[in-house]
Amino acid sequence: MFKSIFVPTTGFSNDPATLETALLVARSFRGHLDCVHVHPDPTQILVQAAGYDMGMGTGAGFVLGDIAQVLEEEDLRQTGRAKKVYEAFLQREKLEEVAMPPCARCPSAAWTEIMGREQDILTAQARVHDLTVIGHPTHWGGLTNEVAGAMLVGSGRPVLLAPPKAPARIDGTIAVAWKDTPEAARALTAAMPLLARAKQVVLINIAEHEDVTVEPVAALAKNLRWHDINVDIRYLAHSGGTVQGTILTIAGEVGADLLVMGGYSHYRLSERLFGGFTREVLAGAPLPIFMAH
């Protein structure tokens, strides 16, 4: 069950959809939203300012202190925007703000501000929560691929990527991008609380090689039916186009509210970045993506 849900806030335009998507999960499990905003510590600000100063050169008319002040002011603006969205969200959804469990009336939420290195703090927070919900990347800012990848790889917990617009529900039809790999199996296992509540689960299996057969996905479907899950299979030989494009197309055709994936991810642990398939899916996915590594 997803009772403790971690929601990093950024102060950018994706925060509302992230909070709304997280609330869909919280309502299903009577869960709690831990909303955290990270401030860079003064040392980080000075290091970042020094980088800007070196890049701009002395002719730019800036000194280190000026750049540090600009960065601090931008952090305050982002924090203010994030807190304003959070407070409006609480009021609109009539959520109780609770710092410690138990909660008399769930779902509930809490706001915390922490100073430090964003990647380290968010990864540590994700590690102690049942699920992390992050916002879809924007042109203006938000969590970088490096930070999001570090959270997914380093936390050992599942991550749910909210789309630019929150869906109406996540428990109607759930699509699973299945591949006969340990990563896909772990993602599916992590998603079982959601799959058990879905009206229908569609297993999407793309045969990328000639030796890939329908037997493994058929065996998976049989196992899920033992859990009283209504399962359908979409198996097809890959015949042109990209695998990620085919999966997103099928997910759209079946009216999926959520896509579970893991088997098509190629994470380079040394760099902790989203890999090829995952990055391309995230760039164009109009529905929430549930991932586990």
Counting helices, strands and paired strands, the structural category is: alpha/beta
User: What's the story with the biggest beta sheet?
Assistant: 11 strands, mixed
Order of secondary-structure elements: EHEHHEEHEHEEHHEHEHEHE
Shape: globular
User: Any idea what the radius of gyration is?
Assistant: 21 Å
* DSSP E strands, number: 11
Topology, element by element:
Blueprint: E1 4-9, H1 15-29, E2 32-39, H2 42-56, H3 64-93, E3 96-97, E4 108-115, H4 118-127, E5 131-134, H5 145-155, E6 159-161, E7 173-178, H6 182-190, H7 192-195, E8 200-207, H8 215-225, E9 231-237, H9 243-253, E10 258-261, H10 276-284, E11 289-291
Parallel strand pairs: 1-2, 1-5, 2-4, 3-4, 5-6, 7-8, 7-10, 8-9, 10-11
Antiparallel strand pairs: 6-11
Helix pairs in contact: 1-3, 2-3, 4-5, 9-10
Describe what this molecule looks like in 3D:
This protein has 293 residues and is α/β, with parallel strands linked by helices. It is globular. It has an eleven-stranded mixed β-sheet with strand order 3-4-2-1-5-6-11-10-7-8-9, sandwiched between helices. Helix 1 crosses helix 3, helix 4 packs parallel to helix 5 and helix 9 runs parallel beside helix 10. Strand 1, helix 1 (15-29) and strand 2 form a beta-alpha-beta unit. It contains ten helices and eleven strands.
In short, what is this structure?
By secondary structure, the protein is of the alpha/beta class. 43% of the residues lie in helices and 20% in strands.
Characteristics of this structure?
293 residues, alpha/beta, 11-stranded mixed β-sheet, 20% strand, globular
